[in-house]
Request: fold
Amino acid sequence: MLDVTDLACRRGDRQLFRSLSFQVPAQTLLHVRGRNGSGKTTLLRALCGLLRPDAGRIRWKGKSIRELAEDYNRDLLYFGHLNGIKADLTGLENLRIARTLDQDPVGDDAILDALARIGLEGFEDLPTRMLSQGQKKRVALTRLILSKAPLWILDEPFTALDVDAVDLLQQLIAEQVADGGSVVLTTHQEVPLTQGAIQRLTLDEADDETPVSGDDPARA
Amino acid sequence: MLDVTDLACRRGDRQLFRSLSFQVPAQTLLHVRGRNGSGKTTLLRALCGLLRPDAGRIRWKGKSIRELAEDYNRDLLYFGHLNGIKADLTGLENLRIARTLDQDPVGDDAILDALARIGLEGFEDLPTRMLSQGQKKRVALTRLILSKAPLWILDEPFTALDVDAVDLLQQLIAEQVADGGSVVLTTHQEVPLTQGAIQRLTLDEADDETPVSGDDPARA
Amino acid sequence: MLSVFYSVLARDILLALRRRTDVLTTLFFFIIVISLFPLGVGSEREQLQALGPGVVWVAALLASMLALERLFAADYDDGTLEQLLLTGQPLALLVLAKVLAHWLLTGLPLVLIAPLVAMQYHLEATAVWVMMAALAVGTPVLSLIGAIGAALTLGLRGGGILLSLLILPLYVPVLVYGAGAVTVSAIEIADTEPYFYLLGAFLLGALVLAPLAAAAALRISLE
Amino acid sequence: MLSVFYSVLARDILLALRRRTDVLTTLFFFIIVISLFPLGVGSEREQLQALGPGVVWVAALLASMLALERLFAADYDDGTLEQLLLTGQPLALLVLAKVLAHWLLTGLPLVLIAPLVAMQYHLEATAVWVMMAALAVGTPVLSLIGAIGAALTLGLRGGGILLSLLILPLYVPVLVYGAGAVTVSAIEIADTEPYFYLLGAFLLGALVLAPLAAAAALRISLE
Amino acid sequence: MIDFLQQGGYAGYVWSAFGMTFGLLLIEILQLRSSHRTTLTRIARLVRLRTPRRKPAAGAGQDSGAASAKP
Amino acid sequence: MTINWFKFASPAAFYPIAGRLIPWFGGIAAVLVLIALYWGFFETADRLGGSNPQKEYYRIIFVHVPAAWMSMWLYLVLAGWSAVGLVFNTRLSFMMAKAVAPTGAIFTFLALWTGALWGRPSWGTYWDWDPRLTSELLLFFLYIGYIALHSAIDDMRRADRAAALLAIVGLVMVPVIYLSINCPDPNQCAALHQRSDPGSIHPSILIPMLTMTLGLWSYSFAAVFARLRNIILSRESDNAWVRDVVAKEAV
Ligand code: HEM
Ligand SMILES: Nc1ncnc2c1ncn2[C@@H]1O[C@H](COP(=O)(O)OP(=O)(O)OP(=O)(O)O)[C@@H](O)[C@H]1O
Ligand SMILES: Nc1ncnc2c1ncn2[C@@H]1O[C@H](COP(=O)(O)OP(=O)(O)OP(=O)(O)O)[C@@H](O)[C@H]1O
Ligand SMILES: [Mg+2]
Ligand SMILES: [Mg+2]
Reply:
């Protein structure tokens, strides 16, 4: 369970948000929304610990993520604007390494199955450099299939994907939530969820004075 | 009017499409569709002359684009997966240079107006490096507002944009078509068009033997 | 035509001034490489005098080559190069503008700083003048030839070092005559003219051919 | 822990082998830089002998530095570095693995090729052995120190040349003692020991401190 | 014979020159042969992989392929 | 030779032709090399007198000079096919250029290696910055540059064209490079000119040397064709005719 109190971030000389407090319990999806440039990516990177916020605390299972450091990272799967795959390695190799680094190696069969599920059958042996925009994204998303991390933080995971892949990804997110995990994601699309709770958080820079809107939980 | 006959392209050792023939007359939008990796980007780059197809001819106003060379480029506006803006320059500077290179310089006022229209008021003087993903895309899209090119080739222009920006872009495309221009675009979304013709072209790699499907024009 | 040439030139200079450190860094690299040698070789006056011209030229070669790596790469990464290719202008002209901007920002400073580093090697005043003149004629050739290599290695992993592999052998003539002119000037004066004729001929040849070759290379690399 | 170390090591070596030329390119860069000097300086035997150790070391410095530029940059550009930071492993360990892979691929070949290039400078057999030993101890220090610079300049435009500015001054001690050992060995034998003690001390110090510093630098650069 | 092998005391130079020459050429020949064989087997494997894969791919592709049904 | 190469410009047509030619060239090469070796070792004097006395080590000439000549000739071939490829956009020319490069690099290396081994007894040093040696070294770098660039790019078409352009740029530069190191001081260029006309060499040396050159030339044909066949196979692997070939040859 992720617990954020009084978070504030500024980039350049703009205050993006402040006094932001919310919680993401298990079995919950937090959908962060907002216009382009409202600070979604900034918030997500702060939640991962990649960016140090100006104020506020972020706690995971009751402990500050700064203190948890590597222990927090083990519980976390972050998916950013960049895919995080090596263009010179094949999809299979990329995923094999990703699993080893998470200290949870799985067999090649499991990886191949996952790649097939995401629609990359026949492309497992190509360096990812040779894949199209959307196929690269799919390779990166295969990490979601293999992951056991309880917390997923996904920054616009739907871009560049075709309709099939979008469906599959929505399904994966729903499974993660159903299995007791938490997901924080940004997207400009809607995310249907059949089980568990969707919270929405809207970052709105329009009025500078009032604190940014809080959570409005909504059962799906 | 863009006229494509018998086009064939292969990347790596896969034949992406062949015997592809279609035309894009004035006042027409061609929506290229297909799964991830079906060759949409490849086709668009070939149409721009950036990539030499394996076979087939591409003609613009009756002449081969290879022969027209720079004259064709002047009639063309291409918008690829990359934004094509310099991160170290401000939006204003970026657009000023783009206009000069197209040998059609416009005053700063016109550029500022265009930037305001696309929702970047207040951000004109920031190096684009300091903008969010979606804001960068918007800077690049401002070129569409300023452009007089009769042919637009747009590769997934809708990604990373929020709802407002998507609306605006759809409107720009509609205007271009209404004004007698042609647009070729790929996207996984639908493109409503109030005037002019939408053609759809689906690239489908499934069956290797039969030539890729032709055009199925459809009035909107 | 000229407005486009000028616009690309202005753009590249503006970009460099946005990141002023870049310009200084090439300069410092040049100075540091030159200063490293006496540390590795020892500091006997005569030996240093004999080494001076060669070392300065090799350092100029390396500095120019290092800076070249970014000549097109930055534009390639952010997609502006694609846009340049599609501008409806002769690409060779745009390349020439970019190379000129590049030389003004990295080559020219080397020429101007040369007297300072020459001091470290106890070179005579005449030798210093000859060196500056030789650098002024030679470094544009380096930039022009290098542009071809930069265009060919665009977007390749380990591009920087591959570039040097391709380009350094081609730099040899400039190195030989550039350093030769300075060495000769130290012995007997007035005989450096043939060197300058040759360097000048290289410059002319490179001015005509290199932009065309680099433009062709760019088209190939972007395919 | 060790499995992760090993996995990163294997990954980087695999990546390099995917592009086998990369490894060779560093090597050839080294050879070319060394071959350029006689062309600029002239080819008198004694002068070359005096020059040899210095040139070899400066070339090793440059080769190592150039290759270092890509040490983290490639991972940064494609987002895998972000993922490495979030792996739940001590970052310094991962850095050490990356540096080790880097040295095996770029430093070690230099050590092995050294005799060949020494020939071009007419060095004696003992001097060649001393040079190989000195390179074997010295080049890992270069890689380790360079890693800090590479981490600091990550994602900066003109990173390559800024890196050299930061790093080359730090390389000076290695250069001085490395080249010194070779020069001394040519004069009177058996006196090279102190040089090696010092180089060894540098290596130990760098092994302990550099990964920590580089890890900290990475966190800063990614913020 | 010994005389011949010694080449007037320059055996080292002469034989390493000739040895390297014909050794390298031999290596090139062997390398060309083996790469011819590996190319053949690789392509043979590719062909074999492609032909039977058609069937299962069509079958397995049914569920994922149905979603992307042709218009 | 007025063969219309365009007729054979299709890889599919050239593959079997090359296959039939290889044994011939290989056989001729073997015969010529053996003759040259026999002649060189048993039918020539052990010592050379004259203005430039040499002992047995001069026999290195029988591999050194042919290797040096082949290295230069093959670079011309490489650049030539590259130019043809760029101008006419024929796939086979690029493959030809690519096939030539490794053999050329090997001969260049051999010229350097044998030259060094000759230099030690003759000049007392393995290496000197003599213009000829230096230009041979630079030629080696050009070959390596071509190969490195080609293999650094994995899009075949881009690799072919980029490397071809590099080869042509190198060809333009070679005379300039040669001029500059052959006469580093333009004031007294003529004085430094090297004497080297084959006519001054005794026939009993010249003949095996030329025989060896022909042998290695023939060998180059065989090696280049063999490599070309491999390249054709792997590049055309999804064509029907390749499958037939594979089915036949891979028994
Ligand atoms: C461009 C490449 C080269 C060519 C065409 C070439 C050609 C020749 C020829 C024709 C000779 C016969 C003697 C003469 O005419 O002087 C010769 C001699 C010789 N070459 Fe080369 N060579 C080349 C490169 C090299 C290299 C790279 C080396 C050494 C590393 C070398 C070392 C020698 C030596 C030591 C001799 C004997 C000279 C003497 O003592 O008379 N050559 N070469
Ligand atoms: N540089 C390359 N080298 C080899 N093959 C490539 C290269 N780039 C793309 N391909 C192949 O070409 C095919 C088509 O790629 P392309 O980028 O045109 O697809 P796309 O339709 O734009 O897909 P997306 O919707 O994911 O953007 C892909 O299957 C990919 O495997
Ligand atoms: N490196 C930076 N330096 C300074 N300001 C920055 C930087 N990166 C982003 N910003 C500013 O921070 C704001 C928020 O950026 P962020 O990337 O978080 O937006 P976002 O909500 O993710 O937008 P998008 O939907 O476009 O991805 C932007 O307005 C931008 O101006
Ligand atoms: Mg964002
Ligand atoms: Mg695409």
